[in-house]
Amino acid sequence: MNISTDLLERVRTTLAAHGAEPTAARVAAVLRADGHLFGDSTVLAVMEALRRDALGAGPLDGLLTEPGITDILVNGPNEVFIDRGSGLERISLPTGDEAAVRRLATRLAAAAGRRLDDATPYVDVRLPDGTRFHAVLSPIAAPGTCLSLRIPSRKIFTLDELVAAGSLPAGGAPLLRDLLLARVAFLISGGTGTGKTTLLNSLLSLADPDDRLVLVEDAGELHPDHPHVIRLEARPPNVEGAGEISLRDLVRQALRMRPDRLVVGEVRGAEVVDLLSALNTGHEGGCGTVHANSAADIPARLEALGALAGLTREAIHSQISSALQAVIHLTRGPTGVRRIAEIRAVTRTPTGQAVTIPAIEFTPTGPPRFHPGATLFTHHLAGAA
Predict the structure, then answer these.
(1) How confident is the model at residue 52 (pLDDT cuts 50, 70, 90)?
(2) Using a CB cutoff of 8 Å and minimum separation of 24, what contacts does 87-96 make?
(3) What is the pLDDT of residue 385?
(4) Fewer beta carbons within 10 angstroms: which end of the chain, N or C?
(5) 313-323 and 271-279 are packed helices; what angle lies between their axes, rounded to 10 degrees?
(6) What confidence score (pLDDT) does residue 24 get?
(7) Is 375 helix (H, G, I), strand (E, B) or coil?
(8) Are residues 58 and 99 in contact, defined by beta-carbon separation less than 8 angstroms?
(9) 245-256 b/e with 16+ CB inside 10 Å = b?
(10) Residue 47 has what pLDDT?
């Protein structure tokens, strides 16, 4: 039932003035005093809307639990877009005026222990239910306060289910399974929303049940179906600028926790140096994800991240070529369909530069196509046999 914003605001203001909780009896009394008679269904709808405004995600609450939605975007008052897996679509959902959107943003930030106001007009946090929440207040953002919510997958997909969904050709599933079981060190690359975390969850779920998986993440999104998982999650600084725990700190701690597989949920900074060092010192089968436009760009991307830690170009390329064996790249088509595009092998040129070369190419239809780089995987698989 749609309740007008004006009615909700009048009830909210009256209850707040008396310091009263929005119970059914109190809401009904306020509605009567407002000069209107409403049925029980309206009273309950107003009470539920007030509860969502006070404790939930307000008008977005229902979207957070709707199956299939991965992203919710609010571009100011009454401008709401969602992604059900086929690209962004605008929906008709009243959010209230700018003050209401701003109030929702500040309350969600507070629920995650962060401040959002004119002095700190943007925030990037994880909500208690695991949703990734980002907000920028107006007037920094136009046409109004902007919210971005990334909803974690509630389901861990198997490789067979990815095949059924069209994300992976049937012949690709055994190839990925063999690479994982051979303890090949790999990165999953792709743009935002291409399914990197989904694929990594699927692959880690196939790891040997006796393996101890230590996951290091900026925000807890990985939940593989595996019996022995340890999760370490970074923490941003508080409002005083203290208390930060970085991914690099956690990677170093993870190395002391006897991991059979070290996993960095998303490589985005100086922690790449510690990850590559770990993979070069006996921690086989490590993996993670990284944002990149193509698998060919991975060495340059890691070079830029290594520079943040003060590593020279020669040193980072030496680490890359020794530590990584494969890059699995994902794309997202114009229709929003996510799929695994290719696997590249990591090798080194005579000049010492790390490069990726085509190994296995996946097409929407037809069997995988093998390229010269696939022979390097044959070597890895033979060595692990």
Answers:
(1) low
(2) 87/334, 87/335, 87/336, 93/59, 93/60, 93/63, 94/2, 94/5, 94/59, 95/58, 95/59, 95/60, 96/5, 96/8, 96/9, 96/58, 96/59
(3) 45
(4) C
(5) 40
(6) 67
(7) helix
(8) no
(9) ebbbbbbeebbe
(10) 65
> Residue 43: what residue type?
V
pTM of the model: 0.78
Q: Give 159-384's CATH code, choosing from 3.40.50.300, 3.90.190.20, 3.40.50.150, 2.60.120.1440.
A: 3.40.50.300
Domains of the chain by residue range: 1-55, 56-152, 159-384
The reported pLDDT for the residue numbered 284 is 85
Burial grade of 52 (CB within 10 A; 0-12, 13-18, 19 or more): middle
Quick check: 319 pLDDT over 70?
yes
Better pLDDT: 51 or 220: 220
Would you give the DSSP letter of residue 256?
Answer: T
Q: Starting from the edge strand earliest in sequence, which strands make up the sheet with 132-136, in order?
A: 88-91, 80-83, 71-75, 146-150, 132-136, 122-126
According to DSSP H, which parts of the chain are helical? Answer: 5-18, 24-33, 40-54, 61-64, 98-111, 159-164, 172-181, 196-204, 247-254, 271-279, 298-308, 313-323, 374-384
Tell the CATH topology of 56-152: Beta-Lactamase (3.30.450)
Number of neighbours of residue 331 by Cβ within 10 angstroms: 18
Q: How far apart are CA 204 and CA 18, in angstroms?
A: 54
Distance of CA 73 to the CA centre of its chain: 15
Residues 259 and 283 sit within 8 Å (Cβ to Cβ): yes
The rounded mean pLDDT for the chain is 85
Number of neighbouring beta carbons within 10 Å of residue 382:
9
